[in-house]
Specification:
It contains six helices and six strands; from the N terminus they run E-H-H-E-H-H-E-E-H-H-E-E. It is α+β, with helices and mostly antiparallel strands and about 150 residues long.
């Protein structure tokens, strides 16, 4: 996405059934990730994209699900290269976090296996978007603007 462009996220065109299906995908993902699970020290490194050297991209459906959490995004944090939903050093929307958040570990062990798993589950998310006619986008979370 062009850094000068801001994507707008709202819930108007995302049926609750699509978000419910996404939660089922996330539940299956949790099971698939068990062999790769590593200890997390909850240092907030993964949410501070500017210092970690990576970025979280989310689909339209994932962004709508983040908005449905009810948490207010902090755009000052976005401007600093941090997740707008980070609270202190922890995720403020843990149950609504995106696929990339669920897949990221500071420990690179099994990185290729996790990448393959990411692609498999991202395909499932895209299928939900297609089934419900949700316009697809894939944008950096720091460039999104969330509105009810």
């Amino acid at each position: 996405m062009d850094s000068s462009r801001t994507a707008l996220v709202n819930l108007k065109h995302v049926p609750p059934a699509a978000m419910a299906e996404l939660q089922l995908v996330y539940a299956r993902l949790g099971e698939a990730l068990e062999p790769f699970r590593r200890h997390c020290e909850m240092r907030g490194i993964c949410c501070n994209f500017a210092t970690a050297g990576h970025m979280l991209y989310v689909t339209s459906l994932e962004a709508a699900t983040m908005l449905a959490s009810g948490e207010t995004p902090d755009y000052h944090q976005s401007a600093e290269g941090k997740c707008p939903f980070m609270r202190g050093k922890q995720c403020g929307i843990r149950d609504h976090r995106a696929l990339g958040c669920r897949m990221y570990y500071c420990d690179d062990t099994y990185k290729q296996d996790r990448n393959d798993t990411y692609e498999r589950f991202m395909k499932q998310i895209r299928e939900i978007e297609k089934r419900y006619g949700i316009e697809h986008s894939y944008d950096p979370v720091t460039q999104l603007r969330f509105e009810e």
